[in-house]
Specification:
The protein is an alpha+beta fold. It has seven helices and twelve strands.
């Protein structure tokens, strides 16, 4: 909305630097990278150089613009097939619908849906959005109030990272944690409100919001950035809670059963878990000492 308002106002005040700067930032955060570049060129023509708040964004916008074109092509293809599974994050004031990139990350998506559909021990039920940095990203998917729980969902392999999709506004990723030198994907769901390419090493983008992004934008802030840009918890903040997650759509007749993590470990440099360590219980993840070394 701010981007559209800025475009309209700039027709009447084309040389208003404050308006140019605000509209440029809104364009960048809304995935409008080419328009952002045009506004930066206009600013430079008027002032000679970009201000400190725009220069870092300008430095990465060409790469993001190229990645966004690739992302749009992928989405067009996915829309034609219209077969990807969708899950619903139910909040008290509505639902956020997320489409999952099963074609690119079949093991990760399979195990995530398996976890969602557990009947005896629902994992995603009455848990907090424990980390919400306003206008940047929000995280849920831990049964501890501070997000300290680490529940390995599957391994993060170099093959998966080679297929990684960029982080844009509306992207949904799973948190990557390191345990004893190994990288594992967890159910920690990150909802991104702006492009954050610097978080690709710690997040695997496995889906995108197709409905309800305004609910993510309105979540209660739980953290804020200090002067040194370190996030600090807001003591008086009461986090919004996730009611539950349900499967909104999946291929007809398809059943999602837990896939042992060793099934995806194709690289010879990886030491897979022994068969006796298979564990389908979300309350008792695989023993830490058996995690493979990270091959990346």
């Amino acid at each position: 909305i701010r981007d559209r308002v800025g475009r309209a106002l700039l027709k009447h005040e084309p040389d208003n630097l404050q308006l140019i700067g605000n509209t440029a930032r809104s364009a960048f955060f809304g995935n409008q990278f080419e328009y952002f570049g045009e506004l930066c060129d206009k600013w430079t023509a008027l002032q000679g150089s970009l201000p400190p708040e725009l220069q870092p964004l300008f430095d990465v916008h060409d790469k993001l613009a190229a990645d966004w074109k690739t992302e749009q092509q992928l989405r067009e293809r996915e829309a034609l097939n219209n077969e990807l599974p969708r899950i619903a994050f139910e909040l008290r004031n509505g639902s956020v619908i997320v489409e999952l990139f099963e074609d690119q990350f079949p093991v990760v998506v399979n195990n995530l849906i398996w976890l969602i559909e557990l009947e005896e021990k629902p994992f995603f039920e009455d848990i907090p959005f424990f980390f919400v940095l306003k206008h940047q990203f929000s995280v849920t998917g831990s049964r501890t109030e501070d997000g300290s729980e680490v529940r390995p969902l599957t391994y993060a392999t170099s093959e998966q990272r080679a297929r990684a999709r960029q982080i844009f506004r509306g992207s949904v990723g799973l948190d990557i944690r390191r345990i004893s030198g190994g990288a594992v994907v967890t159910p920690g769901c990150c909802f991104f409100q702006i492009p954050l390419p610097e978080m690709q090493d710690s997040t695997m983008v496995i889906g995108r919001v197709v409905e309800g992004m305004e609910l993510i934008d309105s979540l209660q802030k739980t953290h804020e950035l200090g002067e040194d840009l370190t996030p600090t918890a807001i003591e008086e903040a009461i986090p919004d809670r996730l009611v539950r997650v349900t499967v909104n759509r999946k291929p007809e007749g398809k059943q999602y059963q837990y896939i042992d993590v060793q099934a995806q470990l194709r690289q010879p440099t990886v030491d897979p878990l022994p068969d006796q360590n298979r564990n389908d219980d979300p309350d008792n993840p695989p023993n830490d000492q058996n995690q493979p070394n990270d091959q990346n």
